[in-house]
Amino acid sequence: MRELPEFPWDVLLPYKKRAAAHPDGLVNLALGEPVDATPDVVRDALAAATDAPGYPPTEGTPALREAAAAWLRRRLGVTVDPSAVLPAVGTKELIAWLPAMLGTGPGDTVAFPRLAFPTFDVSARLAGAQGRPVDSALELGSEPVKVVWLNSPSNPEGRVLSVPELREIVAWARDRGAVLVNDECYIEYGWDRRPVSLLDPAVCGGSHEGLLAVHSLSKRSNLAGYRAGICSGDPALIGRLLQVRKHAGHAVPAPVQAAMVAALEDDAHVERQRDRYAYRRRVLRTALEGAGFRVEHSEGGLFLWATRGEPCWPAVQKLADLGILVAPGAFYGEAGEQYVRIAFTATDERIAAAAARLT
Predict the structure, then answer these.
(1) 213 forms bridges with which residues in the sheet?
(2) Which residues of the chain have pLDDT under 50?
(3) What is the value of pTM for the model shown?
(4) Dihedral of alpha carbons 73, 76, 81, 82, sign
(5) What per-residue confidence (pLDDT) applies to 2?
């Protein structure tokens, strides 16, 4: 295991304290943390399943795997056998440990986007492998690589990869025997471009060989507190992950599995949440652009990737003086040092407060 970096959110605490001193209170736009209520249909399912004296199945209940496969087909146009679905105790833990669970180790390379969620780098470190940030996996050429991470829609910049882009990367990865994994946790929140799954037949040619997709219920269903996600794709890779997770005891609690079934079977709450985020995104973007920020990419996901052409830390401080906490782009790699990431997951009232202060 390689040395881990300092946890980024700890570095932000002084700015949070500064922003909280604002007379009208803190507007926390640094985390993409859901604030709206967990849907009643999910909470009812959780409550009904609380009598759970036995151990939950690591592979997931048949109902959960079938609900996940049905959701993939209905919402993303992806067909998988339910046996090729695996629940996770939140997708962050799955991402952090996935290369190690697939046998990646010292001497191997794990590639991830140059602008990226820090856990991709952590996944290489936990496996003892070499992390390699890249603008595109294609720039690796013939260089050996064990695991390649994609993130579309991306965090932090909100870029959405097109079908031709994804198809080209799939062909490249297969030629080299690399495992290609797309973190698709924001896939139901495309704004300026429709996100496409790595497992879509237009991308992968109908075969999931060497491919995995990771999906989170935290954002689509306001289940961050439940720690609920799924991984699907190549049956052989799913089998390998399941074997390791059984030994490690990585099983999603039974009541949470029941809640996941309810969440995956209901689309209405997702559409309502999508409308909320669309409104907040529009209000916040208008205010940011009025304050001199340029918003780049941000085609999907729950963040605005913005710059005023200055280093990120002075921008974070100026916004903290307005009582607005944002994430510095430097958290996500050197390429983000002149940007800030601004979430629109706060309540309508707090988004309105931020817009008023910016204006």
Answers:
(1) 182, 232
(2) none
(3) 0.93
(4) negative
(5) 62
